Amino acid sequence: MEIREELKKKADLFKILGHPLRLKILINIIEQDKSLVTNLVNDLNVSQPIVSQHINLLKKAGILEGCRNGNQIFYKVKDELVVKIIKICKLV
Q1: Structural domain count of the chain
Q2: How far apart (Å, rounded) are the C-alpha atoms in residues 68 and 50?
Q3: Are 34 and 64 in contact (CB under 8 A)?
Q4: What is the DSSP annotation of 17-67?
Q5: Each residue's pLDDT tens digit in the chain (92 positions)?
Q6: Domain of 63: which CATH number?
Q7: Which of 13, 48, 54, 85 has the fewest Cβ atoms nearer than 10 Å?
């Protein structure tokens, strides 16, 4: 991969992580290992559509993955680099 493309990819990652609510979602999921949208809504005190919108963005970026268990979807941080960044910043 060209250096310019790699830098753009990393810059895009930091843009995604730069939103306070997305950071809170990721921190919450890392601390609980896996999380449901309803748990995030309650823990973060925001509406379900807002949480879902941010989760979809994180999934599209390849940061989160959802695991279905019956009618529930549990979310887990898929990108280990993101986990390392959050831990290095001492957010968890």
Answers
A1: 1
A2: 20
A3: no
A4: HTSHHHHHHHHHHHHHSSB-HHHHHHHHT--HHHHHHHHHHHHHTTSEEEE
A5: 688 998 999 999 999 999 999 999 999 999 987 788 999 999 999 999 999 999 999 999 999 999 988 889 999 999 999 999 999 988 87
A6: 1.10.10.10
A7: 48
